[in-house]
């Protein structure tokens, strides 16, 4: 990682050939003097940017302290190697002195949370909601089954699911955690695997909560009311009443049942044999007929 940082600081990007290095003055000009603020959050301020070559992007300001420098280059190294249709793409970066920025695809329709809960926006139709569930599952499968090492440091919620101009969902806010390979090798292998499995369970749970939000149009809430509802023995009796009123009767009943069953399986407490993201993805894509949990059915 230190070698990568030296290459980038010297003006090259040989370690990340598909990531563009921007000059600070390009960032400043594209954001109109950093006046085009989109959002300010714990991970920095984000700006809407239009570059001289026509590129429209979202620029996020990274921490400018010396302690945050290493974290910036670790994040750059990770994000620059991710390549998936349903993960927000890193276009480039800028690092001059203490000013550090990351340049991402601009998501024209902002976050899924805004699409679902902003009363001034046109409600998402059923087909779009179903595709969001599929898109997010595809992103998660890529992150922790096809990346080496697996990427687990991502929070699955409607604020981190971004919607492009065509309402294609893309997962954002993917970051890194410290990973000491030597320490990992010396530690108990089964203990490390236990931590990996625990993190997978947490992400599957979050995915189930996201599905409930898509179906009901309700925010999950700090008390977990939606999870409590879907785990109740008689939840099927109220399922159709829980559907987002903005959908009217335009949803597909079979697809609704499938999503609710997935959400129930994902959020079931203490279930070590939890259904996996790859299986969920193939089920939603119609490539497998069941989830291997035939007992989970909903009567008409």
Automatic annotation (TrEMBL):
In this chain the Protein kinase domain maps to 32-280
- Pfam annotation, one family: PK_Tyr_Ser-Thr
Q: Which UniProt keywords apply?
A: ATP-binding, Nucleotide-binding
Any one GO CC term of the record:
plasma membrane
Q: Entry's SUPFAM superfamilies?
A: Protein kinase-like (PK-like) (SSF56112)
Q: Which InterPro entries match?
A: Kinase-like_dom_sf (IPR011009), Prot_kinase_dom (IPR000719), Ser-Thr/Tyr_kinase_cat_dom (IPR001245)
This entry's Gene Ontology molecular function terms read: ATP binding; protein kinase activity
- Could you tell me the superkingdom of the organism this chain comes from? Eukaryota
Q: Which PROSITE patterns match?
A: PROTEIN_KINASE_DOM
Q: Which Gene3D superfamilies match?
A: Phosphorylase Kinase, domain 1 (3.30.200.20), Transferase(Phosphotransferase) domain 1 (1.10.510.10)
What this protein is called in its record is: Protein kinase domain-containing protein
